[in-house]
Design brief:
Strand content: under 5%
Number of domains: 1
Keywords: Signal
Number of helices: 14
Length: 350
């Protein structure tokens, strides 16, 4: 039997426990989950690869020398120039334009103001996917458009200028006997042109790495251009749109299904496809090597450069006065015109 003193102690302990239990505060609720981190500025590997392939082609083609020494030299230069697939070239130009647009500090900062809030970021991204022109309302769009127009326009001018020099070489090389010899295996040469024009090319790993660093802001490109006033061409608008999606975190691999349609542009695609068709028609009737030089200068380099300049709204500069008076040809774009161009070359020497 418990003593009265011990009983009192037990009762007191129970009472104290009850009092303390009554005074205890409920446990606080767990903290809300942290908001998702703001995505970094990036473009998917596929977009970077497309931009790299474009950059690699333009750099190679712009270095084609008009100082031809023999038929093999002409054949190799022709192979270098015709090695692009028009659809990939256009996708690469727009992807490269997006990289360029992200080099504009005002545009980059303007897009990033929408990146912190997940709902706002998603709304803006989906609006751009639905209508690329939505991007033009973002701060910095005019200065970014100026950079894109200047960069892609300069690329087009490089190809155009080099094409003019190569086209003139079609007349200059007629001083040499080798240029008047017929091209061997003409049919297979045309087949190769069509094959190379349908085969996507790969970019350089070095170029891809540089573009990735430029997008991230680690190693910005050194670019400068005046702001461009609207209206803008679809190619420029789509470059800005892809750039904005990259700054919002919506140009990654998971979003490619919605982003890749922005890298297509019908007017530029038609121009590039026509350039290839004119090349095939020219090669189909060209026989001596100097006529292949003409096809290379006009329908590979000049036509492609003109398509690129037209695509970004840059006017083609007037050609310099030719050192020799050339017979004008106005039947461009037909097999008959290709034959006329080939005949025009014969006997026209400085």
């Amino acid at each position: 039997m418990m003593s009265s003193a011990r009983l009192r102690l037990v009762l007191a302990a129970v009472a104290t426990t009850a009092i303390l239990a009554g005074c205890a505060q409920p446990a606080p609720p767990p903290p809300p989950p942290a908001p998702p981190p703001v995505p970094s500025v990036s473009l998917s590997n596929k977009l970077l690869d497309q931009a790299s392939a474009y950059r690699a082609y333009v750099d190679r083609a712009a270095q084609i020398s008009p100082a031809f020494t023999d038929g093999a030299n002409v054949a190799q230069s022709l192979k270098t120039g015709e090695s692009y697939e028009p659809g990939q070239f256009l996708r690469g130009a727009i992807a490269y334009g997006a990289v360029v647009a992200l080099q504009d500090p005002a545009f980059r900062a303007g897009v990033r103001t929408y990146a912190a809030d997940a709902d706002q970021r998603r709304t803006v991204a989906y609006s751009i996917m639905k209508d690329p022109a939505y991007v033009l309302g973002i701060t910095g769009a005019q200065s970014a458009a100026g950079l894109v127009t200047s960069a892609l326009g300069d690329d087009g001018k490089k190809l155009l200028d080099q094409g003019r020099a190569v086209k003139q070489a079609a007349y200059d090389v007629q001083h040499y006997a080798w240029s008047k010899s017929d091209v061997a295996a003409r049919e297979s040469r045309l087949a190769m042109a069509k094959q190379l024009s349908a085969t996507p090319i790969s970019g350089s790993t070095d170029i891809t790495a540089k573009l990735e660093l430029a997008v991230a802001g680690s190693q910005p490109m050194t670019l400068a251009a005046d702001p461009a006033s609207p209206p803008y061409t679809p190619l420029v608008v789509r470059s800005l749109a892809v750039a904005a999606l990259g700054a919002l975190g919506y140009a990654d691999d998971a979003s490619l299904e919605q982003v890749m349609p922005l890298t297509a542009e019908p007017a530029s695609a038609q121009c590039l496809n026509m350039s290839k068709l004119n090349l095939y028609q020219c090669l189909a009737v060209a026989k001596p090597h100097y006529e292949d030089v003409f096809c290379l200068g006009q329908h590979v380099l000049m036509d492609t450069g003109q398509c690129l300049m037209k695509g970004v709204g840059v006017a083609e500069p007037a050609p310099p006065p030719p050192p020799v008076q050339l017979t004008p040809v106005s039947t461009k774009g037909s097999a008959k015109g290709a034959k006329s161009r080939a005949r025009t070359l014969k006997g026209k020497r400085p």
